[in-house]
């Protein structure tokens, strides 16, 4: 309920301000919120910290970019391609990394995303290190395309609603119960006759697909495709949003993404070293907000 | 013994380096029998249990469950066949309520874990059977509480309920009385004796009074090997057992 309320608030902000800057701001929040919610499925629900989710974000970004270069811009082709690619690569990365946990999981996911990062850097015909300008925006039909700020904003808000709805349904189902039980006590789950691994791999793959949807939006928002979207710094920013908002909830990462984007806008007008401020914010959150931003608005963070 | 054993362990051996922790152990449990496994600390009881449930792999020897060899099967497969275990330290899900624990057990039993869209059952959807199980151990009033708020004895009871909620045929109970107060202990003993005929039970326990009142057969494990196995009377009178383990306790009675 709360979650949909928050997204609705985002949606009505657009016509209210009717200004390209704010429309893009809302879009940026939505795109990052999609990535943060998807990352939280792994961090908060599977219970493993992934430092490689930018890989799936980047798959979305590069799918939009490369397909546009080939002259394919229809959203009903671009999205499925991005999601399918993310599913295949996510399933592969998850299959290997979910055999580990803790620090090892962090480093294996990081290693895989770095492989994709350097692969993207090595794509000479796609600008290598510099990336390339998105040659044409992804299109809906009847002349609506994602280069129009409002169309892009509503598309990404709709995508965010879809992602949140799927996440809530999945976590409220039997599958979700098994995921939570496996997070709490995998040994016991095993001795009850359930193997955590296939469940966790399924959720990891779903998470990768969601993140790629955000990536497609990001390419259209920036009208630019660059390896930076796959870098570990991007993964770290997603993780920052999840932790700031409160892991293990669905509204939390959305709040985290909103707070991150707003701080980014404010702090970066003050100083070039605005990331420094994020460090202080993160420290304050860890020291004083036991349940992140969620703890500020609800009593028990649920 | 006329009935075919539900569990049969034959010549099981396990060593950690030079230390032999399970030394050619053979034992069997027939359906409806409560077989107690006793022995001093460090005798290898938990190691033996871990091999039966599959958490540890035996070096050699065979484990038969309902006449089929289960050595190569993993923990969850063995659990699905009907081997259910309660741990020495209760293993629960801290973020979940008591009712949700039962729901997870039900998901495991009905193999419906991959239902990803339909809302899962909640507190109000507990079946009469599930409610009855909670009633039986006196946890009904705690159904909506998370396990963090449960007392130690209640956690033990809940874990036992989880075993019963599964479609288990063989219960492996690792010291179900440890850490319980006198009245909780009495309750647990009453519960165990009511379960006796319905399940095959392997009971590891240090409380000798409980063991002698509940067990159909007792096996004594010392230094990884079974030094005696038989009825309660036989074990009480076995000179080897007296000197190795029971000794003083029997004299005191």
Question: How is this structure best described in words?
Answer:
- The complex is a heterodimer of chains A (302) and B (253).
- Chain A is mostly helical and 302 residues long.
- Chain A contains 13 helices and two strands.
- Chain A has a two-stranded antiparallel ribbon with strand order 1-2.
- The longest helix of chain A is centred in the first third of the chain and has 27 residues, at 20-46.
- Chain B has 253 residues and is α/β, with parallel strands linked by helices.
- Chain B folds into two domains: 1-82 and 169-253, Rossmann fold; 92-166, no CATH class.
- In chain B, 37% of the residues lie in helices and 24% in strands.
- Chain B has nine helices and ten strands.
- A six-stranded mixed β-sheet of chain B has the order 6-7-8-3-9-10, with helices on both faces. In chain B, strands 2-1-4-5 form a four-stranded antiparallel β-sheet, covered by helices on one side.
- The longest helix of chain B is centred in the middle third of the chain and has 14 residues, at 152-165.
- The relative contact order of chain B is 0.17.
- The model of chain B has no long low-confidence stretch (mean pLDDT 91).
- Classes of the chains: A mainly alpha (302), B alpha/beta (253).
Question: How much strand content do the residues of chain A show?
Answer: under 5%
Q: Helix and strand succession of chain A?
A: HHHHHEHHHHEHHHH
CATH superfamily of the largest domain in chain B: P-loop containing nucleotide triphosphate hydrolases
> What's the CATH C level of chain A?
Mainly Alpha
Residue share in helix of chain B: 25-40%
Mean pLDDT metric of chain B: 91
Cα(first) to Cα(last) distance of chain A is 12 Å
User: DSSP strand (E) fraction of chain B?
Assistant: 15-25%
Count of alpha and pi helical runs of chain A: 13
């Amino acid at each position: 309920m709360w979650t949909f309320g928050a997204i609705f608030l985002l949606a009505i902000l657009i016509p209210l301000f009717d200004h390209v800057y704010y429309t893009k701001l809302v879009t940026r929040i939505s795109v990052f919120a999609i990535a943060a919610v998807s990352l939280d499925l792994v961090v908060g629900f599977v219970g493993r910290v992934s430092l490689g989710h930018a890989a799936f974000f980047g798959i979305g970004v590069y799918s939009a970019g490369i397909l546009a270069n080939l002259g394919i811009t229809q959203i009903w082709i671009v999205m499925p391609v991005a999601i399918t690619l993310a599913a295949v690569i996510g399933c592969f990365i998850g299959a290997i990394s979910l055999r580990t946990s803790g620090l090892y999981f962090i480093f294996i996911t990081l290693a895989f995303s770095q492989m994709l990062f350097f692969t993207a850097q090595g794509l000479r015909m796609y600008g290598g290190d510099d990336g390339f300008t998105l040659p044409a925006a992804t299109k809906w039909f009847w002349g609506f395309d994602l280069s129009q700020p409002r169309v892009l904003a509503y598309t990404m808000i709709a995508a965010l609603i879809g992602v949140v709805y799927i996440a809530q349904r999945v976590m409220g189902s039997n599958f979700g119960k098994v995921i939570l039980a496996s997070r709490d006590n995998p040994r016991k789950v095993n001795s009850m006759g359930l193997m955590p691994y296939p469940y966790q791999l399924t959720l990891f793959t779903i998470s990768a697909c969601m993140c790629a949807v955000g990536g497609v939006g990001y390419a259209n928002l920036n009208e630019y495709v660059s390896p930076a979207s796959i870098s570990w710094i991007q993964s770290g920013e997603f993780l920052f949003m999840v932790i700031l908002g409160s892991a293990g909830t669905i509204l939390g990462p959305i709040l985290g993404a909103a707070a991150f984007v707003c701080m980014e806008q404010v702090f970066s007008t003050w100083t070039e070293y605005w990331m420094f401020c994020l460090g202080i914010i993160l420290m304050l959150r860890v020291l004083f907000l036991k349940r992140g931003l969620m703890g500020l608005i609800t009593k028990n963070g649920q | 013994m006329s009935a075919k054993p539900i569990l049969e362990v034959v010549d099981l051996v396990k060593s950690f380096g030079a230390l032999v922790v399970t030394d050619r152990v053979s034992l069997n449990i027939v359906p409806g029998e409560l077989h107690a496994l006793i022995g001093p600390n460090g005798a290898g009881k938990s190691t033996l249990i871990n091999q039966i449930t599959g958490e540890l792999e035996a070096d050699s020897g065979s484990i038969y469950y309902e006449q089929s060899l289960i050595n190569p099967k993993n923990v969850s497969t063995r659990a699905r066949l009907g081997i259910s275990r309660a741990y020495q330290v209760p293993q629960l899900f801290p973020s979940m309520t008591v009712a949700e624990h039962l729901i997870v057990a039900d998901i495991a039993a009905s193999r419906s874990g991959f239902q990803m869209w339909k809302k899962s059952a909640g507190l109000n959807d507990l079946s009469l059977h599930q409610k009855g199980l909670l009633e039986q151990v006196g946890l009904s009033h705690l159904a909506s509480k998370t396990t963090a708020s449960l007392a130690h004895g209640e956690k033990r009871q809940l874990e036992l309920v989880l075993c019963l909620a599964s479609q288990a045929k063989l219960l492996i109970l690792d010291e179900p009385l440890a850490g319980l107060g006198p009245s909780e202990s009495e309750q647990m003993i009453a519960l165990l004796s009511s379960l006796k005929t319905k399940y095959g039970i392997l009971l590891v326990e240090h409380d000798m009074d409980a063991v002698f009142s509940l067990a159909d057969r007792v096996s004594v494990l010392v230094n990884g090997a079974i030094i005696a196995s038989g009825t309660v009377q036989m074990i009480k009178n076995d000179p080897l057992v007296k000197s190795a383990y029971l000794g003083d306790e029997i004299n005191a009675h």
